[in-house]
């Protein structure tokens, strides 16, 4: 919302509006001011909208704005009545989207508004068109509109051709420049070839080489085309083979009469869909299109027209309900013997329509799945599903490639780290070179003479320096060996840690899945227990009711007849059945309770095991941190114990 307002403000502050708005001033505008801004923006598209709305009637303003928006083909959304009311009242929720749409598409809407002045036809009532003179004028008016369309189209084509001519001119100039460059290259090469022996034979060999390369290129293209053709034929063969296998599978165990009956059933279904369902839907769509076309071509309805239509709809609804009540009152059940058959026919027709709708939906889903499967097959190069042997080979190759990938990745990481060290070394050497250059310059400026120093003294100093360097190397060598061993131990520990971490992750995932499954089983058993308890209580209530009835029957035993004795026997039998059912449900309830206790204990054990594994992982991580960390700085490696 804020981005929309910012865009509107930035556009209104530019030419030709120059409103000098900010967020606060624009948000505080009154509805009347918003309508005036909308009218000013529309005036840039069509000068007839340059009106001060203070001097205009509100109804005229609404009609003018709605007409202009209809000409510009603005979509008001799913609630045109609310849009009209919001436009009349100058609501921000309605005005802001209109301003954003117009300012984003200003150039296209200018052309549309210009064309609308000549192409939107004047609506003339049919009563007036009955006059021959007016009808002739209207036909002439329509011919002029067609002539304007043709002229505007021709002008547009001429403009496009002029633009293309300019582009061609620039292309020709660029080609001429390239031609000059090529000619200069040819002249330069010709001058070089003047002093070469056997020039003609070399040129002939170069020409033959060029021809052979072109021929090779053509042969490669031809080979590529043949390969694509072979691939398409293979895909077609695989598709036909699959269709043949499907047809054979479908025909297994099916006789010719059954196939004919199935085809007849499909034919009947398709005939019903085409002749009844689709024809009805097509007719409904045509009616809706006619109504929408009539509404779009007609003038925008006013509030009075809408009120009249609502009153008419209410009146017709009342008449329909009265007629329905009269029809129901006039028909007696004894007279309408066909009512059950009519009702059955309506139910059958409704079921038929539902099945046709379901059939159409399933068929469309099947077609979509087939298209998706076809696209997947084309993307995979026509390769079908792998069998067991091919799948095992694929998995083995995948493992090998995964191992190679990991090794290459490790090499790449080592090379990257080494390149970083080398880059840093280069930087250090460059700095040292600059330092040495500066010192050399200083030494050149303050050059000293070494004539006073003897050769033996210089050799003595050099030997002393070499001895010091050797002593330092001897001191560093054991530490380097120790560092190398420590690095090997660290790498072994790191590999061991990664392996343990992988095992832990796999076990944790397995345990998590098992715990989730057990929790779901516990929830299902709890629901079953609840349902069994409710059913048990219901059966106990039924047992109490039957016991009360039995007692009442025993009290009235002296008044019972032969018929009542039969009823008593049935009730006693039913009570016995309900008691047996109650006992069975009680046994099932006890079994469910025992299983629930076992599953709860098992879930607690799995949960404790997961906590134990997490604790082990934490201990391993702490131990790894205690083993030490190797730090590398400027070509040196240091083992830091924590």
TrEMBL record:
Domain IFT81 calponin homology: 3-123
Swiss-Prot/TrEMBL keywords: Acetylation, Cell projection, Cilium, Cilium biogenesis/degradation, Coiled coil, Cytoplasm, Cytoskeleton, Differentiation, Phosphoprotein, Spermatogenesis
Signal peptide: none
One of the GO BP terms on file: cilium assembly
A Pfam family that the UniProt record links to this protein: IFT81_CH
Gene Ontology CC entries for this record: ciliary basal body; intraciliary transport particle B
Coiled coil: 134-250, 275-326, 422-535, 568-598
Molecular functions (GO terms): tubulin binding
Main location: cytoplasm
Subcellular location: Cytoplasm, Cytoskeleton, Cilium basal body
Top-level taxon of the source organism: Eukaryota
Similarity annotation: Belongs to the IFT81 family.
Main function: Component of the intraflagellar transport (IFT) complex B: together with IFT74, forms a tubulin-binding module that specifically mediates transport of tubulin within the cilium. Binds tubulin via its CH (calponin-homology)-like region. Required for ciliogenesis. Required for proper regulation of SHH signaling. Plays an important role during spermatogenesis by modulating the assembly and elongation of the sperm flagella.
Protein's name according to its UniProt entry: Intraflagellar transport protein 81 homolog
Organism: Rhynocoris fuscipes
